[in-house]
Amino acid sequence: MPKKSGLSNPICLSRRSKRTDHAETDGIGPTMTRPKALLFDLGGVVIEVDMQRSFDHWGDRTGTDVSKIAERHLRDEVHDQYERGEIPTEAYMDHLRQLMELDLSHTEMVDGWNALLVQEIVGIRAVLQRLSGAVPLYAFSNTNAAHVESMSVRFGDALNHFDTVYVSSSIGHRKPELKSFLHVADAMGFPPEEILFFDDSPVNLDGARKAGLQTVHVRSHDDVLAALSQHGF
Predict the structure, then answer these.
(1) The pLDDT of residue 53 is above 90
(2) Is the pLDDT of residue 16 over 70?
(3) Contact 40, 139 (CB under 8 A)
(4) Which of 7, 78, 131, 205 has the most CB atoms at less than 10 Å from its CB?
(5) Residues 162, 40: contact at Cβ < 8 Å?
(6) What is the reported pLDDT for 7?
(7) Residue 31 pLDDT class (50, 70, 90 cuts)
């Protein structure tokens, strides 16, 4: 049976049942436990994202100055509600349409919203393929219903390497909230200190460390490779 990305039901593990075996292994350094599971952010780590592409899309279709659209765009509480799954896509697109003063249909708004998903990070699929089956492999993304649908279609081959993809809009919690990391760690079945988390956001990494996870700040794909090598993966 082919593996599933878990995007449609991210709380259910797609290839393994919840882990209960936590045998001790040699630590990395004097106080750090060797990671037993890997947890990847998606945007900026697995998938290249660029919000400017959304602004360009909407500007092209309305004739509006793109810089004005960018100025009006805010990642506000309504955005966070959408990423927690508290409001539907239709409501968030209506909010964006009013916020940025765009005369566009719902479909045109969603197409622009999805335009920020660019492509897989070069080299990441080979890394995930190598790790898959060799170490428990998971992803956790702050994302929303529209992007989940688009990513499932466009990046399914890469995402299928994860045992489960946890998304904020399904679990009801966003990074960097402490409860988001504790929720995911519990669902994975590993103590937080046994999880190595890769993210490009310092704010999210700070939240992960407060929850007890080990972290890697991803500024380029080379950071992923270096951290994996350092930890023996």
Answers:
(1) yes
(2) no
(3) yes
(4) 7
(5) yes
(6) 57
(7) low
Closest CA to 160 of 52, 1, 6: 6
Burial label, 160 (beta-carbon count in 10 A; 0-12, 13-18, 19+): buried
Q: Regarding the domain with residue range 37-48+118-230, which homologous superfamily does it belong to in the CATH classification?
A: HAD superfamily/HAD-like (3.40.50.1000)
- Number of C-beta neighbours around residue 217 at 10 A: 13
Among 224, 209, 11, which residue's Cα sits nearest to residue 120? 224
pTM of the model: 0.87
Fold exhibited by the domain 51-115: DNA polymerase; domain 1 (1.10.150)
Provide the 8-state DSSP code for 231.
Answer: T
Half-sphere exposure of 216 (CA within 13 A, CB side): 25
Q: So what's the pLDDT on residue 33?
A: 82
Query: Closest Cα to residue 188, out of 148, 132, 138, 231?
Result: 138
Numbered ranges of CATH 3.40.50.1000 in the chain: 37-48+118-230
SS (HEC) of 158-182: HHCCCCEEEEHHHHCCCCCCHHHHH
- Nearest one of 227, 8, 6 to 127, comparing CA atoms: 227
pLDDT category, 46, cuts 50, 70, 90? very high
Please write the tens of the pLDDT for every residue from 205-215. 999 999 999 99
Asked if 71 contacts 58 with a C-beta cutoff of 8 angstroms, the reply is no
d(Cα 79, Cα 116) in Å, to the nearest integer? 15
